[in-house]
Amino acid sequence: MHKLVIVIEQMNDSSAFDEAWPGFLHLAESMPGLLRETFSRVDAILFGKTLPGLIFELYFDSPESARAAMASPAGREAGRLLQQITGGRVSLFLADHKENTPGNIGENTPQNS
Question: What is the pTM of this model?
């Protein structure tokens, strides 16, 4: 499984963002091939220079299906709206998503997967 990870930086005034966010979600949720999504508000930054405020993850079967979703009309419009409502304070990346239980973590480390 692959996911499109969207990291949105903290904003001083989030009222315009909060107002436009449902429109972005509607577009993102209508992208073809979307399997599930998760949304996390960052409570605390424990270490690092980036200041994320929100992490949104969209899950797909493959990187190809994620790219096709982003290239779809809904994906292009969602990307345009995301840039607009964040003022460009956003990072996107694709990740090969693996899940494990604590007892199996050593079997699927990055060098073994």
Answer: 0.84
Instruction: Say if CB 9 and CB 52 are below 8 A apart.
Output: yes
For 86, other C-beta atoms within 10 Å of its C-beta total 19
The owner of tokens 């992208």 is 31
Give 5-31 pLDDT, tens digit per residue: 999 998 887 888 889 999 999 999 999
Q: If residue 91 lies in a helix (H) or strand (E), which one and from where to where?
A: strand 90-96
99 exposure class (CB count in 10 Å sphere: 0-12, 13-18, 19+): exposed
Residue with tokens 């604590």: 102
The domains of the chain are located at: 1-51
